[in-house]
Every structure is written in structure tokens, then in C-alpha cells.
Amino acid sequence: MKVRWTIAGVLFLSTVINYIDRQTLSVLAPHIKTEFGWDNSKFALLIISFRLAYAFGQTASGRFLDAVGVRRGLTAAVAFYSIAAMLTSLATGLRSFCAFRFLLGAGESANWPGAAKAVAEWFPRRESGWAVAIYDSGSAVGGAIAPYLVFWIYQQFGSWRPAFLITGTLGLLWIPLFRWVYRKPEEHPRLSAGERTEILTGRADASSSGPEVRLPYSTLLRLPQTWGIIIAKTLTDPVWFFITDWFAIFLVSRHFKPEDSLIAFWVPFLAADIGNFAGGGFSSWLIARGWSTGKSRRFVALLSGLGMTTLALTVFFTSLPALVLCFGISTLAYAAFSTIVLALPADIYRTGNVASVSGMSGTGAGIGTIIATLITGIVADRYSFEPILIAGSLIPLGATAAVLLLVRNSNATAKGIVNPI
Length: 421
What we know:
The chain has 17 helices and no strands. It has helices at about 5-35, 40-70, 70-85, 95-110, 110-120, 125-155, 160-180, 195-200, 215-220, 225-255, 260-290, 295-305, 320-350, 350-380, 385-395, 395-405, 410-415.
């Protein structure tokens, strides 16, 4: 196997572990809420604590990773969030839970900027969609594994505390593997000369001339492409995090017990996994058949944006299979859209700026998710989940418009500031 696909696999494992750690709380939420007597509004504070650190941490993590590199940056980040996950087992109430979730979010904020930068370094543009699909699919796989693993631990020990302790160790086990596998392609000792040439000549920045320059934020934020990526992430990530953070509680609101509907909990994550490969694979297939990178990414984004509107159909159904089908289609569409947006920084920017732009889009997504979480807690307590489901199907259409209108070649492309797309 070529080294770059091994690296994609290691990044996939990192994302799986990342999501198992964060989903441990969501899976156990009904039990923890009952033990501490929390309503949805108080539980939302735990989610927001994570999201605050995760949101603003992504901009800082992106710049940090562009400065120190993927190998050192992800090692430090995974060690940090693994310890934070394990410390959650010591929580005794709302404040301590919020504190540990904040630390977890700060550490996990480096995963997506780091993976985006790794793809920019290691993959030719024609393969970047597949590479993003591989690592991003880890979120769906981790989300699907989490309920089985976490409920099993809970049942074995009769307590939620060991679940945080055990799942938190997974990242510490991943670090030695990552450090053994990962180097930049220019200096990797196990990379063949042929693969090295294939990577370096096929990367998005191979067409750019001049030395690598890390652009200031002021320059990046003047580019329409940057705002297209930020807006797209900001308006769609709340859809995914609604499912990961609230799905178990939503099922309870519809009178389904999470323990009795693990398959239902699992299906949207499987659909998201399929969506990652559908979006990345279809886009790469179009590029291989002569479509420009930009045209292929925008076409898949359009199809995916329309697919997310199926979430609104859940307000008309009460049966579990029908609800799961609607969530599954919408989540598949979200994952395909997400893969495209995650691929865009590597398509457009030089490698020294990829993590920075990815981090800024993650911050925008985090802010959007925090606002959505606050609204969800309030609306779910006072009314129902139905207004949230309708809004969650319509708002992503704005994200689709941002990709179609803003992610195009511009004056900055002609000046060589960004890569042609």
C-alpha cells in the first residue's frame, strides 16, 4: 500500500477516537441528566462548554499547526484531549462537567485543521476528495461505535464514570502509531521516489510559484473563497451536531428508549459514513473525467444541500423506521457536503495556510453550533423539537448558496495568492 493511504487510515482512526470521546457524554446523557436532575437547558450548558472551546480553539489550532507542523501539533492535541476525557470521570456536578468538557473541546479542536493540512501535504488534488472522505468518515464510525461501547461499559460497571476513563485511553494508544507513520512527504524515510514525485507534482500548490508564505488573517479574510468556506461550515455543522448531541434525547421525546433503539441510533451515523465517500468519491470521479475541481465541488454541494431538506419531513412521522429514514437521508447529504467543504482549503490555499483557513471555518461552525444549541435547549423545553427540525433543513440552503457564489476563481487567483479551482 502507498504510504499516503496508510496516513489517511491513521487520520481516520484519530477521528474515530475523537468522536468516541465526545459522544460518551451524549450517549449517557439520559442517565446523567436523571442522576443530577438536569433539564434540557442545563444539559445544553455542557454542550456549549465543549463548543466554546472547540469553536475558538480551531482558529488557534489551525495557526498552531501551520507553525509547528502536523506531526508535533496533533501529538500534543490528542494527548491533551485524551487526558481531559479521562478526567471527566471525576466530575461531581454541572460546573465540573462544564470544565472538563471545555478542556476536551480545546484539545479536539485541532483534529480537523490538522487532517486538512495533512491532506494538502500528502495528496494530489485528484485524490483529495477521497482522502477527506476517509478521515471525515471517522466521525460517523466513531459515532456509531460509541453507543455500543459506552453502553457496554456502563452495563459492566453499573456507573457512567468508567466509560469516560476507558474511552479516554484510546487517544493515548494512537499517538505512538501516528508518530511512527507520519512525516512530511519531503522527508519521509519510507516513501518511494515515485510516490514522492507523484505527490509533490499533483498537490494543489504545485501550480503555484515562489516560496511558501503564511498569509496574515487580514489577507485571508479579504478573499471571497475564505468567506464561502466559513459560511458553508457555519450553516451546516449545526445539523450534524444536533444529531450527535441531541438524537438520544430526541428519541426519548418521541417515547423511544435509547437502550431499545440502538440500531436507530446507529443508522444516521452509517448514512453519514456513506455520504462522506459519496461526496468525496463522486467529486473525484468528476475531476478524473475532465471537470474542473471547482465545478465538481460546487455540483456535489448543490445536490447535498437539497438532500439536507429531508430533515423537515420528520415532523410528519411518528414511527421509528420513518424517522430514522429521514435522519439517514439528511445525514448522508450533510456528510457529502461536509466532505466537499473540508476539501476546499487544500484545493484553494497553499499548504502553509490550509490549517489556518480550516480552523477559521471551524470557529464559524462552532459559533453557529453554540447558537443552535442554545436555541435547541430552549425550544425543546418550551415547545418541541419540530421547529428545530424545520430550521435545520432550510438553513443549509444558505450554505449551498455560499459555495456556489463565493468559491470561485477571483483576482487573488490571477495574482497567484490562491490556487486556481
